[in-house]
Design a protein that fits this description.
Layout lengths: L1 H12 L13 E2 L3 E7 L2 E6 L4 E8 L2 E7 L24 E4 L3 E5 L4 E5 L4 E5 L6 E11 L18 E6 L5 E4 L13 E4 L16 E2 L2 E6 L2 E7 L5 E5 L6 E6 L4 E7 L3 H12 L13 E2 L7 H13 L6 E4 L20 H10 L3 E6 L3 E2 L25 H9 L4 E2 L8 E2 L2 E4 L6 H10 L1 H4 L5 E4 L18 E3 L6 E2 H23 L7 E3 L2 E2 L7 E2 L8 H15 L7 E3 L9 H11 L4 E4 L15 H16 L1 H14 L4 E2 L1 H4 L13 E3 L3 E3 L9 E6 L3 E4 L5 E3 L2 E6 L7 E4 L2 E5 L14 E6 L6 E7 L13 E10 L2 E6 L12 E6 L9 E5 L5 E5 L1
Helix pairs in contact: 6-8, 10-11
The chain binds alpha-D-glucopyranose.
Length: 824
């Protein structure tokens, strides 16, 4: 605990990283002396012996890869990339003395030969989308000093783009920053930053992908380089937006929209689609550092049930282990974890355990014999620790360049980290999770995987730590930022192997691009403050624009003391966030929904119950994310890209395409301004309609979060449940919000929610169209598509408007066939 306080103090006094490299001083690549056509594109040869490769992966996706003063290496590997081979698409090349032009049906890339500048155009509109401000450049003479630069590990490389006068920048993963990143700059260096506030940078994750938006047209850039990287969106100059890294290749992917969803779809194709989690991962979750012993966990669940608060998951933080030894249980606190999981399971509650990367450094005590137990996780590991023993024997732990074991200090004291770049080590780590699954644990929460090290949180102490890295033996200068990605991968693949019939559920704090393939993320050690709550909205929307749809944060904030009002307002945001977990620091006041009195608890209950009623809607939106890469939790601009009023909205969000939420993130506020985009909108609570395209002042007493449904939408609701799967989803109630013409539609997605069968097409989609004809509404339910058969249920339809028609509730048994109904 003292240690945590110390870390907090250190964090507060550390200055925010200064990034002020003058990249104009770098040596520029070029000019182009010749080029050759290669598979999928062009290879440019430069006078300075540099090479640039342009590859056409899709009509709207071009990869740019440069090496400086040397030929491009044949080795080409990234942990982020999910799709390596792309089908050939037509492209052409044309040349003039000054330019080489590579064209696809959607992009025209003009390469200027003498000063090697690359421009991207839309060949159909002739619009210039993005252009180099200076040639790609490198720090040939080590002129840059203002970095954590390790000249032995690499050489600074950078690309600089012209900054548009009205260009907006989105994405870049998890940043403690606003939605539009214009005029800001950032560093990517995964860092343990408890209690971070807006402006603190870097924090836990590295997602070097951003979207530029200008004149309504969007492009994306994914700078796939895991070294410490820098992004400057017009902060240090009026004319440029640049990115660079302290080593590695200048390797980026250029995506063209013009729509944001199209870019997100391609990005998901390139770096991987989020798999569907088990449906209970959308259930309400409760955590605290730490619930123990087992009887306390049972008490928490009992309180939830007695108070009629829905709950699906309880998290066990680090104190369930024997002295923080991962893959063990402290049996003096949890005498029979399997029995506990079963007991909670009967109440519909699952257990998730935290697993840190730090394996206790524990050479065997003199004379201690090796364990032969098939359940070492329950035996005392005081004299020999099976995980340490095995890892040493197999040589899976990271070492320093000088060959010594790397011994960071984390919760267990001296520790070691696994080299997750080794496929065998990943497999071993994954298989170790048997210790949890055998004891009924349902999911794994990976933490501290920046990786945090109490000796030195900056990562400097790790610079000479070597990873195998596919036989290249590179250092943490390159590998730190992918450590969490690979740990999440090892965990996910382990769970998948050990329980092939269940969808894995893995949570991570740190990440690199591609992490969506393996894990849900949460925003780490936030504060129980209004500022932190307000910040969570642009953080979630930005993560969604960075290919991470399954996001969440600690409801109520992690550090410091909340109060009833803050916790209520926090639930009014988080009850619609994909990962909804109330979690609290070890030394803070309790934060479960009932801790501040009945008045607040009643409001929280209302929102948690509504979350469960909205699960059919949320799950449909989550499946859309899985399939299309478009997130559940969206900034308005994602749905209204042609409306510039949405470009800067940080305090509203949308769930899918249909629900707009304008929460209150300040104390003592009972009304607020809400911007509603074009169209008709309905107040979710009253059914009152509002004209869009303008601001409205709406009431927002503590009991009510302003929520609006898009005219034209149908919102499916299930019954109230205490936990997911408690009973059949019946009645399935469709709330219909007609647009100006009286029409509305939706497509509901359903599957078994637990197994990977959905990947083989075992799901069901039901499309519903409503049209007005005179004084009546006609409801057309299409023939359901897909072989999945839900349990028998009743469908209910109701028009939500002030029209007297809305009192009619049409109800009938779903017969899994096309039906036509009328409301008159
Ligand atoms: C880290 C995590 C936090 C957890 C704590 C103890 O600070 O971010 O969620 O409770 O470690 O494991």
């Amino acid at each position: 605990m003292k240690r945590l306080k110390l870390i907090f103090v250190v964090v507060l006094v550390l200055p925010v990283t200064v990034v002020a490299q003058d990249i104009t001083r770098l040596r520029k690549i070029g000019p182009v002396t010749s080029y050759t056509r290669i598979d999928k594109g062009l290879l440019l040869n430069c006078r300075d012996n540099s090479q640039v490769q342009l590859s056409v992966l899709a009509p709207d996706l071009i990869r740019v890869r440069a090496s400086f003063a040397k030929a491009l290496p044949s080795k080409d590997h990234s942990w982020a990339i999910a799709k390596e081979s792309w089908q050939d698409v037509p492209w052409t090349v044309a040349e003039t003395p000054n330019e080489i032009t590579l064209s696809t049906s959607e992009l025209q890339v003009v390469i200027h030969r003498s000063t090697l500048l690359i421009d991207f155009h839309d060949p159909r509109t002739r619009q210039l989308l993005n252009s180099d401000e200076q040639p790609m450049a490198y720090d040939a003479d080590a002129t840059l000093t203002n970095m954590m630069f390790d000249p032995k590990a690499g050489m600074f490389v950078a690309a600089s783009k012209k900054l548009g006068f009205d260009e907006h920048f989105y994405g870049l993963g998890e940043k403690a920053a606003r939605l539009d990143k214009r005029r800001d700059r950032f560093v990517n260096w995964n860092s343990d930053t408890p209690g971070y506030v807006e402006g603190r940078d870097p924090i836990y994750q590295t997602i070097p992908f951003y979207i530029g938006l200008q004149r309504g047209v969007a492009y994306g850039i994914f700078f796939d380089n895991s070294y410490r990287s820098y992004f400057d969106f017009g902060r240090s100059s009026q004319q440029r937006a640049w990115f660079g890294a302290e080593g590695g290749e200048l390797n980026y992917y250029f995506f063209y929209g013009p729509s944001l969803p199209k870019i997100l779809g391609r990005y998901a194709e390139l770096t991987g689609h989020m798999p569907l989690p088990p449906i209970w991962a959308l259930g309400n979750q409760q955590s605290r550092w730490s619930y123990y012993p087992d009887t306390l966990v049972e008490e928490v669940v009992r309180q939830y049930r007695e108070r009629d608060l829905p709950l699906d998951v309880v998290h066990l933080d680090i104190d369930y282990m024997q002295a923080y030894r991962v893959f063990t249980f402290d049996t003096s606190r949890f005498s029979n974890p399997k029995a506990l999981s079963e007991k909670l399971g009967q109440q519909g509650v699952k257990l998730v355990t935290i697993v840190d990367p730090g394996v206790k450094h524990q050479p065997p005590a003199m004379g201690a014999s090796q364990s032969t137990s098939s359940k070492p996780e329950l035996d005392s590991q005081e004299r020999r620790y099976y995980v340490f023993d095995e890892g040493v024997a197999k040589n899976y732990f990271q070492k320093r360049k000088n060959g010594e074991l790397f011994v960071p200090r984390v919760w267990p004291g001296d520790s070691v980290f696994v080299d997750y770049t080794l496929p065998d080590a990943r497999r071993w780590w994954g298989d170790l999770h048997r210790a949890y699954l055998d004891n009924g644990i349902a999911g794994i929460w990976t933490d501290m995987n920046e990786p945090a090290d109490f000796i030195d949180q900056t990562g400097k102490n790790q610079m000479d730590v070597v990873s195998n890295d596919e036989g290249q033996y590179t250092t943490h200068a390159k590998n730190r930022n992918v450590f969490a990605l690979l740990m999440a991968r090892a965990t996910y693949e382990g769970l998948e192997r050990l329980q092939p019939n269940k969808r894995p559920y893995v949570i991570t704090r740190a990440a690199y691009a591609g992490v969506q393939r393996y894990a849900t993320m949460w925003t780490g050690d936030t504060n129980s403050t209004w500022e932190s709550l307000a910040l969570s909205i642009p953080m979630f929307t930005s993560l969604g624009l960075s290919g991470e749809p399954f996001v969440g944060g600690d409801v109520g904030g992690f550090m410091g003391r909340a109060n009833g009002e803050l916790v209520v307002r926090s639930y009014q945001v988080f009850f619609l966030v994909p990962f909804c977990r109330n979690h609290k620091n070890i030394d803070s006041y309790d934060q479960e929904p009932w801790r501040f009195g009945q008045y607040y608890e009643d409001i929280i209950r209302k929102y948690l119950k509504l979350r469960y009623r909205l699960l059919p809607f949320l799950y449909t939106a989550l499946e859309e994310s899985h399939r299309t890469g478009v997130p559940v939790f969206r900034p308005l601009l994602l749905n209204y890209q042609d409306d510039t009023n949405t470009y800067n909205i940080d305090d509203e969000f949308m769930i899918g395409s249909d629900l707009l939420v304008a929460p209150v993130t300040r104390p003592d506020v009972t009304s607020r301004l809400v911007y509603l985009p074009r169209g008709t909108w309905y107040d979710y609570w009253t059914g009152r309609s509002f004209a869009g395209g303008t601001m409205h002042r709406v009431d927002a007493p503590l009991e009510t979060v302003p929520m609006f449904v898009r005219g034209g939408a149908i919102i499916p609701h299930g019954p109230e449940m205490r936990f997911t799967g408690e009973k059949p989803v019946s009645p399935l109630y469709f709330a219909i919000y007609p647009d100006e013409k009286g029409s509305a539609s939706t497509t509901l997605y359903e599957d078994d929610g637990l197994t990977p069968d959905y990947r083989r097409g075992v799901f069901r989609r039901t499309t519903i169209n409503v049209t007005r004809s005179g004084r009546k509404y006609v409801i057309d339910i299409g023939q359901p598509v897909g072989p999945y058969r839900p349990a028998s249920r009743t469908f209910q339809f109701q028009i939500k408007s002030h029209d007297p028609l809305d009192r009619t509730l049409v109800s009938f048994i779903d017969r899994s066939v096309a039906e036509r109904m009328e409301i008159r």
